[in-house]
Amino acid sequence: MAPKTPGPGLFDAQAHEKRPGPLAERLRPATLAQVVGQDHLIASDAPLGRMLAGHALSSIILWGPPGAGKTTIARLLAEGTDLAFEPLSAVFSGVADLRRVFEAARQRRALGQGTLLFVDEIHRFNRAQQDGFLPFVEDGTVILVGATTENPSFELNGALLSRAQVLVLRRLDDAALEILLQRAEALLGQPLPLTDEGRSALKAMADGDGRYMLGLAEQLSHYKAKEPLDAKGLAGVVQRRAPLYDKAQESHYNLISALHKSLRGSDTDAALYWMARMLEGGEDPLYLLRRLARFAVEDIGLADPNALPQAIAAWELYTRLGSPEGDLAIAQLVIYLGSAPKSNAAYKALSAAKRSARETGSLMPPMHILNAPTRMMKDLGYGTGYVYDHDTESGFSGQNYFPDGMARQNFYNPVDRGFEREIKKRLDYWTRLRNADK
Predict the structure, then answer these.
(1) Theoretical Cys-Cys bridge with 105: which of 45, 64, 115, 277, CB 3.0 to 4.6 Å?
(2) In this structure, how many other beta carbons lie within 10 angstroms of the beta carbon of residue 13?
(3) What phi and psi values does residue 67 have, to the nearest 5 degrees?
(4) How far apart are CA 29 and CA 183, in angstroms?
(5) 213 Cβ contact list (under 8 Å, min separation 6)
(6) What secondary structure letter does DSSP report for 124?
(7) What is the distance between the alpha carbons of residues 314 and 312, in angstroms, rounded to a whole number?
(8) Measured on CA atoms in the order 388, 390, 392, 397, is the torsion positive or negative?
C-alpha cells in the first residue's frame, strides 16, 4: 500500500507521441514531478511530497480551478501506489455505484489490499450521499481523493472535511502555461504560428486553464498561417473563452467582496475592474446596483450625503435603459463612490443603538416628551415640563430625551471628513450648549 516515488520531472516528447486522444490528453504528465504550477503541493517539503516520502497517503480533497491539474494529480497518486484505483464521476454516478465500490473495497481489504477512490466533481454529490462516505473513509476501507472546482467549505459536509485534508491548487500562471506550450511544440514537432505578442495573448485567453490552452494550441497546429499571428490575428482564428464566473458560487462572493473593499479603499480603478469582471461574467447588473446602494450608506454615509441619491439615480436609470447603455450608469456610480469621502459612522451608530436597545429592554420615554391627548394623561404628568425648542433663543432646549434612569449615550461619532466635518461642528456646538445648562 506504500506509494511509489515519482519519476523525474523531465519531459520526454517521444514517450507521449504514441498516446491517443487530444493534445491535452497526450501531454498529461507521466509523473507528479512533471506537473506544472503546483510545486506548493508536490515538492519534497509540500503536503503530497511528504505523503509520498513517508509512504502514507491519506484522504484528500483537491480544490482548484478548471485545468489546474486536479484529475492528473489524482491519477498519478493512484498510479504511484499499490492501492486499487476506483474512479467515479459524481456527475454520472449514484448511490448504487457507491455501494458497489464500497463492497469491492471491503472485499479487497479482507485480502490485505487497500482502495483509492477517486471522485471527480465530488461537490455534485448531495449531503446524504456525502454522508455515505464517512464510515468507509473513517475506518480506512478507502482512501478518498476528491476533486472539486467549488469551495469545499460551502459544498462538502463538515464531517467529511474533518476526515480529509483540503489541498488547494493554484491557477496556472504564465510560467506554467509557457512550459505547457513548449511541451506541446516539442510533441507537435513544430513551433506554433505566433508572434511573441500572440503567444502572450494565447496564455491570457487560457485564463489559467492548461487544458483549455492546449486545446487552442491544437487548433493552431492545424492552421496554415502565411505569417505568425499577433494578438489580433489570434482572436480571429480561435475563440476567447468566457471568464470563469458562477453567479451562485464562490467566485460571485469573491468578486463582490473585491469590489466592495476596493471602493472602501478609494481605489476607483480597481473597483471599475472588479465591476467589469462581474458584468463580463454575466452578473445581474441589478444585484450590483443593490450592493452599490448599500455601500453608499454603509461606507460613505453622511460624509457625502449625495452618494445615496447618486446610487438611486443610477439604479433608476439602469432599469430604464438596461444593458449595454445602462452599464455606463453603473460605471459612473462606481467612480463616484470610489472617489467620495468615506465614513462608517452611521453604520456604527446603528449597531450601537441596536445593542443598547437590546440591553435596556422596555424603558419608557421620559414623561415630558410624551403627548397628553386625554385629561387623565395630563393629570398623570404626560408632557409636563416640555420645552418647545423653536421658542428658545438658540433653537435648542438641551432637554433629555433618553429614558429616565438611563445615562445619555453617544452612538453617532462623525468623522472629520467630507460633509460629516460640518455635522461634527453642529453636534459639538449642541453638546456645549447642553453642558452649559448643567
Answers:
(1) 115
(2) 15
(3) 75, 15
(4) 10
(5) 67, 177, 180, 181, 202, 203, 205, 206
(6) G
(7) 5
(8) positive
Grid coordinates standing for 1? 500500500
Residue 391: alpha-carbon gap to chain centroid: 57
Report the alpha-carbon angle 228-230-231, nearest 5.
150
Q: Which of 49, 64, 53, 57 is nearest to 78 (CA)?
A: 57
Count CA atoms within 13 Å of residue 177 on its CB side.
25
According to DSSP, residue 194 is labeled: B
The predicted model scores a pTM of 0.65
Taking only the tens of pLDDT, the chain with its 438 residues reads 444 433 445 666 666 666 667 898 889 998 888 999 999 999 988 999 888 777 788 899 999 888 899 989 988 887 777 788 888 888 888 888 888 999 999 999 988 888 899 998 898 888 888 888 888 988 889 999 999 988 888 888 888 888 899 999 999 999 999 999 999 999 988 899 999 999 999 998 888 899 989 999 998 988 887 889 998 888 888 866 655 555 555 567 888 999 999 999 999 999 999 999 889 888 889 999 999 999 999 999 999 999 999 999 999 999 999 989 999 999 999 999 999 999 999 999 999 999 998 888 888 899 988 898 888 888 888 889 999 999 998 899 999 989 988 899 999 999 999 999 999 999 999 999 988 866
Interacting residues of 396 by C-beta distance below 8 A, sequence separation 6+? 389, 430, 433, 434
CA atoms within 13 A on the CB side of 253: 6
Report residue 417 as a C-alpha cell: 471628513
Q: Which segments of 132-227 does DSSP mark as H helices, in order? A: 134-138, 152-155, 158-161, 174-188, 196-206, 210-221
Total residues found in the chain within this entry: 438
The whole-angstrom separation of Cα 175 and Cα 202 is 13
DSSP track, 49-105? HHHHHTT----EEEE--TTSSHHHHHHHHHHTSSSEEEEEETTT--HHHHHHHHHHH
For 101, the grid coordinates are 465500490
Are 67 and 208 in contact by the 8 Å Cβ rule? The answer is yes
Nearest to 6 by CA among 38, 367, 388: 38
Q: What are phi and psi of 362, to 5 degrees?
A: -110, 40
Distances (CA, A) of 44 to 2, 6, 36, 47, 68: 16, 11, 15, 8, 20
Q: 3-state class of 39 per DSSP?
A: helix
